[in-house]
Amino acid sequence: MSIMDRDTLLSSLESAPRPEEDALLMAGRFVPLRSLERAALLLQAPTVKKLLALDHYGVERCIGRPLRRTPWNPEELREATGIDRRWLAGGTRHVWWIGDHTYPGHLRRIWDPPAVLYGWGESSTLACPGIAVVGTREPDEQGRAAAYRLGLDLGQRGVVVVSGLARGIDSAAHRGAVISGTPAIAVLGSGIDSIYPRENRALAADLLGAGGLIVSEYPPGTPAHRTRFPARNRIVVGLSAGIVVVQAPERSGALISADFGLQNGVEVMVHSSGKGWSGCSRLRSEGAATVTTANDVITRVSPEALPGSIPAGGGADAEGDSAARAQLAAEERKLALLDSPSEVKP
User: Would you tell me the crossing angle of helices 21-28 and 35-44 to the nearest 10 degrees?
Assistant: First the structure.
């Protein structure tokens, strides 16, 4: 950044007061801003009053570059935050500022952490790094079973499973994690209220019902778009102490996650079920270890990198099971009301 370099900006945020929540929501809705540009803007204009006083050129001076395509219209942004406030009123819903003490420190360490992060579910799940399980949207049966088993076994070891709630490997890993009873984290490439793909709404409801968390850097109402999925992957990496690629072709979003992991010093591993896949072969040739079990993964990452793992569920009595099922059903009904897009926009 030309006005303030990244390290100085992040250091300044530690002592700066938290911006007004409506100011956070306004900045979160201004699409042209990059993640740390939002932080720079809110550092200099942390109130709605100050944001309303800025003109387009004032915003450019705050972030240190020109904004050519989308005009700064603070009144319009303030009006749009009504959508966010209605969503936040639903309960177990959150908006985090990068300077908050509850914002995960391990996410703050990536190069461009989200300045504004939206969450739905149990916020304490963010406290410790997890293990990302990622891969192709079109796995074979061996890969699907391997991802499910790995999600289940990691969850039974008390490890948070992180993934993108996409079709294929992501979904299988999350299903395993939900069955384990340990909370998991899903990172969306769409608005926090827009589960994509639509068929994963029930899985998202199960994840929330099991004490998990859904996060996104995109505000409510933001549709899924193919350009947002690569950006989502850096958050998956930032919330993880290790990444397991189960199956991936050469051109795969999972390899983007692996590259982000390598850039951020996160252990990258390949599951043995991916040996015949070109993307996995490339990662192995570059030094990624091959793993098969949850124990392999934890040994490679080291238990010390997964502090305070959440105890896995289990042993509930019949009354507790009945209450859990009722909670899941309620979450499913809530998700069924969401206006999620039917397909990714080009």
Answer: 140
Amino acid identity at 37: E
CATH number of the domain within which 160 lies:
3.40.50.450
For residue 45, being part of any structural domain is answered with: yes
Q: Taking 60 as the threshold, does the pLDDT of residue 194 lie above it?
A: yes
- Domain holding 18, by residue range, is 6-121
pLDDT of residue 328: 47
Output the average pLDDT for the chain: 89
Q: Are residues 139 and 232 in the same domain?
A: yes
Does 96 lie in the same domain as 145? no
pLDDT of residue 308: 54
238-274 pLDDT tens trace: 999 999 999 999 988 899 999 999 999 999 999 999 9
**Number of compact structural domains in the chain:** 2
Say whether both 73 and 222 belong to one domain. Answer: no
Give the 3-state secondary structure percentages of the chain, helix then strand then coil, rounded to 5: 50, 10, 40
Q: Is 90 exceeded by the pLDDT of residue 68? A: no
Read off the pLDDT of each residue in 135-163 and give the average, rounded to a whole number.
97
Beta-sheet pairing, 213-216 with 161-163: unpaired
On whether both 114 and 133 belong to a single domain, the answer is no
pLDDT at 256: 93
Residues 143 and 112 in one domain: no
Residue 335 has pLDDT above 90, yes or no: no
**Torsion angles phi and psi, residue 74, rounded to 5:** -65, -30
**Among 121, 151, 172, which residue terminates a domain?**
121
> Residue 192 domain-assigned?
yes
Q: DSSP states of 23-85 as a string?
A: HHHHHHT-TT--HHHHHHHHHH--SHHHHHH--HHHHHHHHTS---SS---HHHHHHHHHHHH
